[in-house]
């Protein structure tokens, strides 16, 4: 069986049998006679398999340097099927460090930053912020780092973020931490899937789930939506 053999051989790459079936149908090669595939057919198969099982997002880093715009446009023409996100990891790291020190106000993904303590900025830091403003924010609206991660996780991998809570009134855990956890789930996941993601025992002993916004129970097979807040009830 070609499908079983191929899947077992490349199991370390996370390739599933259904992925191979889908790709075979796409590229029109005979799974009964893989030894007879032409070089062109083999190339079509491997490209389609890579695209289906290892989707990519290109974080086009260093948009703050000369010729960055030209390079990004060239990449978009070369790889029209891929999502290319202009990024500046240098700007992101610099702003996060200054934010942690209380010098600037910045949250990853923001389209701007605000200087809070001008007296803490030496001439070198001031110049760096001016460069970031001109080459990153004015041209691309953000550093692109958070955008690249959001696209990779939420769009390409088709995930949603769900917030489980223990106290549905305060939206917190037992210690009072508000929205302490954010859990990634595949689109189409249910409250029961969330319970298993939290802990296997909670999944096994799942009873019900509550929507804190409406205070109503959620059906165990209802599909959860992105940014849902859910209280899971399970037997001890």
Topology at a glance:
Elements: H1 2-9, H2 17-27, H3 39-53, E1 57-60, H4 68-78, E2 83-86, H5 89-100, E3 104-105, E4 114-115, H6 123-140, H7 145-156, E5 159-165, E6 183-186, H8 191-198, H9 200-204, E7 206-211, E8 216-218, E9 228-234
Parallel strand pairs: 1-2, 5-9
Antiparallel strand pairs: 3-4, 5-6, 7-8, 7-9
Structure overview:
The chain folds into 3 domains: 52 residues, no CATH class; 95 residues, no CATH class; 77 residues, Ubiquitin-like (UB roll), CATH 3.10.20.30. It is 42% helix and 17% strand. The mean pLDDT is 94. The protein has 236 residues and is an alpha/beta fold. Helix 2 crosses helix 3. The chain contains 9 helices and 9 strands. The strands form 3 sheets. It has a 5-stranded mixed β-sheet with strand order 6-5-9-7-8. A two-stranded parallel sheet has the order 1-2.
Could you name the key traits of this structure?
about 240 residues, alpha/beta, Ubiquitin-like (UB roll), two-stranded parallel sheet, 9 helices, about 15% strand
What is the residue-mean pLDDT, rounded to a whole number? 94
- Give the DSSP E fraction (strand runs of 2 or more residues): 15-25%
Compute the number of helices: 9
* Topology, number of strands: 9
Regarding quaternary structure, what we see is single chain
* Uncertain runs: none
Query: How far apart are the first and last residues' alpha carbons, in Å?
Result: 45 Å
**Adjacency order of strands in the biggest sheet:** 6-5-9-7-8
Task: Kindly provide the radius of gyration, computed on alpha-carbon positions and rounded to a whole number of angstroms.
Answer: 24 Å
How many structural domains in the coordinates? 3
Write down the overall geometry.
flat
Secondary-structure-derived class:
alpha/beta
Helix content: 40-55%
Largest sheet features: 5 strands, mixed
What string gives the helices and strands in order?
HHHEHEHEEHHEEHHEEE
């Amino acid at each position: 069986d070609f499908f079983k053999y191929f899947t077992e051989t490349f199991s370390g790459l996370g390739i599933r049998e259904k992925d191979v079936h889908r790709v075979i149908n796409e590229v029109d090669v005979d799974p009964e006679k893989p030894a007879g595939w032409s070089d062109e057919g083999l190339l079509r198969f491997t490209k389609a398999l890579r695209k289906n099982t290892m989707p990519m997002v290109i974080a086009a880093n260093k948009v703050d340097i000369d010729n960055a715009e030209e390079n990004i446009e060239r990449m978009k023409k070369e790889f029209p099927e891929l999502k290319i996100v202009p990024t500046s990891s240098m700007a992101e790291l610099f702003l996060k460090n200054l934010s942690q020190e209380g010098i600037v106000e910045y949250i990853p993904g923001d389209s701007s930053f605000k200087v809070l303590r001008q007296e803490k900025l030496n001439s070198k830091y001031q110049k760096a912020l001016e460069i970031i403003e001109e080459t990153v924010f004015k041209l691309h609206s953000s550093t692109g780092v958070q955008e690249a991660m959001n696209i990779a996780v939420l769009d390409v991998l088709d995930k949603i973020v769900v917030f489980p809570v223990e106290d549905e009134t305060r939206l917190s855990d037992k210690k009072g931490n508000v929205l302490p956890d954010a859990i990634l789930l595949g689109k189409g996941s249910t409250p029961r899937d969330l319970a298993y993601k939290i802990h296997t025992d909670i999944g096994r002993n799942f009873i019900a789930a509550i929507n804190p916004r409406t205070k109503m129970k959620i059906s165990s097979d209802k599909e959860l939506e992105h940014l849902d807040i859910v209280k899971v009830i399970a037997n001890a």
